[in-house]
Each structure stands twice: as C-alpha cells, then as structure tokens.
Amino acid sequence: MKNQKKISFPSNLHGHTTYCDGKNRAEEYILAAIEKNFVSVGLSGHSYVYFDKEPNMSLEGTLKYIEELKILKEKYKDKIQVYIGIEADFYSGFNPKLDKNLGLDYRIGSVHYVKDKVKDKYYCVDNTPEILAYAIENYDNDDEKSLICAYYDNIIEMIHTQKPDILGHLDLVRKFNGDGKYFDENSEWYNKKVDEVLGEISKTDIIVEINTGGISRGWTKTPYPSAFILKKILSKNIPITLSSDAHSVENIDYYFKESVELVKEIGFKSLKIMKNGKFEDFEI
Ligand SMILES: [Zn+2]
Ligand SMILES: [Zn+2]
Predict the structure, then answer these.
(1) What is the pLDDT of residue 22?
(2) Which domains does the chain have, with CATH numbers?
(3) Which segments constitute the PHP domain (predicted)?
(4) Distance from the alpha carbon of residue 106 to the mean position of ligand 1, in angstroms
(5) What is the pLDDT of residues 96-144, one digit of tens each?
(6) From the CA of 170, how far away is ligand 1's center (Å)?
C-alpha cells in the first residue's frame, strides 16, 4: 500500500450506471477507480420499485446489471477488487436471502419515498423541491413534522426488517432544506427523532454512509448526515463509511478529501472499507 498514502479514501461503493439514472457504464467506473489507485469499487444500481420507473432499474435490467458486474469483476480481478452492490429502496423489500440469491456482495438500504397513509401513493423526498413541498402539503395537513418523521420511521423499519449492510444518506430529507426552508434541524422534535433512529441503528451492525452526493449535485454544502448527527454517531460508536453516490465517473471520489478531514475533526479514527470480501477498518 506504499503508493496509497495520498488517497484520502481508496474506495467507493455507491455508484449508479446507465441501468438506472447514472451517466456511465459500470466498466467506466471500474477504469476510473483503477486510475485513482483504489483498493475496491462497487456499483449500486437503484432497485426496482413498481411505482417509479424512471430513476430505478427495471427487473430485467437488474439481472443484466448483476450479470455484467460478475463478468467485470472477473475481468479486472488482478487490477482491483470489484463488488456487486445495489441501493435497495425501502419499498423494494430486500432481505439478506434475496441478496444471496442474486449474488450481491453488499446492499445499501435507502429510503427515498414515504407512502401515503391511505392511498396507494408514494411521495418522493429527493426528486425536486416542488415534489417535497407537495409531499409535505399532502401527507398530513401541511405538517412537515409528520412527513419527516414518517421518513425516519421507514429507516427504522428498514434496518430491522431488511438488514442492509450500509445505511444510505441518513438525512436525505435535508437535500432541499437549505437553511431550514422546510423544517428546523435544531428543533427538539427533529433531534429526538434522529436520536431514536441512531438508538435503533446502534442495536445493529449497520454501517452509516457519509454521502457526498448532495454536494456534487449542488443541493447541500456538507455531506449527509449533518455534522451534529455525525457527533451523535461517534458517541454511539456506530461505524461509518464514505461514498460519493456518483451518477457519473468524474464524481467517483467527489469531496472525499474534505469529508475525511471533517470526520477526523469530529473525532473519528477510521472508516469502513470493503476489502477481501468484508468490511475492514481504514485508519484516517
Ligand atoms: Zn439514494
Ligand atoms: Zn444513490
């Protein structure tokens, strides 16, 4: 590992290909990762959900995506460790048995939607500010607290029933929030809800992802989750990893250097990295 001294974090497990809403093919990500001298690289296509076809993989596409990655994993095995992942939305209902049957190496569990309480309708929290505003207005009498808490309740249910390896972008609901446009991150109810989620995470061995995707797409100034949440994560001894949620190869290590500095400042000593088929500590 002599020549890896300059790399802040030599891996990215969160990337999207043309099978979903990404701009590049899996092989292009692998070549970029080799170029960067990464130890490992994984792709994580958006899982199929029946109610939102556009950003997600189709069912046939999912199988093709996995088959393609199996071939690429073998093709590049002497150059880099390639891992087959998926970003499974809560409403795709994944579980460890399905991961195994599909041949996945890991699964990122993410919540992107909240289902209406009555109707067969799903509100997306990270598509556009207008859609988020619509969701808040329609979910429960224009009460932002209800929608945001329902988002976090989905996370709690997902970690216990679906058992992902990594929890994706924990506070994604912050994407369009700017300086508190839709809800107050300093409010007591929000902090209480975050504490509840972290309490549940700490009962599992799930790794929380530091995700720079909101910054690369120009929506947030800091990675998910917010620094105050990262402090709570540290105090609870919850493991973390770093990923860029890349939708194009240029962003494969977007804001990695700054993010490593940020978590170091908060007090973290290591990040989890996938190596030799399992998660290990990478000292920072
Ligand atoms: Zn996501
Ligand atoms: Zn993603």
Answers:
(1) 98
(2) 10-283 (3.20.20.140)
(3) 13-212
(4) 15
(5) 999 999 999 999 999 999 999 999 999 999 999 999 999 999 999 889 9
(6) 10
